[in-house]
Amino acid sequence: MVVVLVFYFVPPPLTSPSWIEAFGTLLALSIISTLMALQIGEGGTTSSLEFIPQLAGVMLLGPAGAAGLNLLTEIFSTFLAREKPLHKRIFNVAQATLAITLAALAYRTFGGVISLESFNLTQVVAPFLLAVIVYFGVNTTLVSYVVAESQGEPITDIWGKIAGGLIAFDIAMSFIALIVAILYASFGPIVILFAIIPLFGLRYSYGVNIELQRLNSDLLRLMVKTIEAQDPYTSGHSIRVSEAAREIGKLIGVRRRDMRNLETSALLHDIGKIDVAYSE
Fold first, then answer.
1. CA-CA distances (angstroms) from residue 50 to 73, 76, 134?
2. Which of 46, 83, 101, 274 is deepest in the core (most CB within 10 A)?
3. Cβ neighbours of residue 28 under 8 Å, at least 6 residues apart?
4. pTM of the model as a whole
5. DSSP assignment of 254-274
6. SS3 39
7. Would you state the pLDDT for residue 96?
8. Residue 90 CA to its chain's centroid (Å)
9. pLDDT tens track for 40-90
10. Which long-range contacts (CB under 8 A, 24 or more apart) does 272-280 make?
11. Rounded CA gap, 68 and 97, in Å?
12. How many CB atoms are closer than 10 A to CB 43?
């Protein structure tokens, strides 16, 4: 419905060969980015870099083009996640399309130039930054709200789990979309060949970061199991202390970025028992 309304009120130049060429090029890059998605958590949660060509589409294609680009990419993505229930897949398509559409409308409303020709950098940076904030704000908030309602947890806690670790990185990397759009307007589709290179680099960086987080989490679980194996009487004690520390941290206003350190410290407060047990 959103896409239909945008196409009606802000129709794209569908008869323009250059516009069609740009749409097809960005769609191909967006689908490639989807295929490079990484799993970032349990339950099938993934993260991809498809937002880069889609945000470039905000500048090159306008609201209708960006909405159509996102819609087709998300529909393709649903075929890669057939294990998810249908209602979840429909929600993912709808929220992602709404996010990019509102971002494109914000960009256009606040003076952003939509063009397949050269850009004046000083005129597009501020509207583009606003579009990025709107995109990630709408995207993460909608997902966090639905998850919070289904799990009965505060939306702020869910938002921190979903977006807290990667949101700053995603916003910083979004400026690659600005570069892609400017280079495309200047040099045409050939620039996509150069855009794929940093996408692969970013994908690798994502993978390394996520793998390190998994390894750290596995190491913590191994340490806790080792402690409990040496002292079965206190089995589960460390986990309960960590949970209590988290709740106390919330009450006294511990910042979200410090909460993980608090929970980890509490989880490992009995780590010395390993040495005592083996010394015996």
1. 8, 12, 16
2. 101
3. 192
4. 0.69
5. --HHHHHHHHHHHHTTTTTHH
6. strand
7. 86
8. 18
9. 544 445 566 788 888 999 999 888 888 888 888 888 877 766 667 777 778
10. 273/227, 273/230, 273/231, 274/223, 274/226, 274/227, 274/230, 277/230, 277/231, 278/230
11. 8
12. 8
Q: Contact 71/63 with Cβ under 8 angstroms?
A: no
Beta strands in the chain (DSSP E): 38-39, 46-47
Amino acid identity at 161: K
Give pLDDT, residue 279. Answer: 46
User: Residue 42 carries which DSSP code?
Assistant: G
User: What distance in Å separates the CA atoms of residue 253 and residue 255, rounded to the nearest whole number?
Assistant: 6
Range among 50-64, 138-152, 164-178 with highest mean pLDDT value? 50-64
Q: Residue 113: its pLDDT value, please?
A: 84
pLDDT tens, 226-265? 666 666 666 677 777 777 887 888 778 777 667 777 777 7
The C-alpha atoms of residue 155 and residue 133 are separated, in whole angstroms, by: 19
Give DSSP secondary structure letters for 48-84. Answer: -STHHHHHHHHHHTHHHHHHHHHHHHHHHHHTT-TTS
Question: Residues 193-216: what's their mean pLDDT?
Answer: 66
pLDDT at residue 206 above 80?
Answer: no
- The one-letter amino acid code at 279 reads S
The answer to whether the beta carbons of residues 23 and 81 sit under 8 Å apart is no
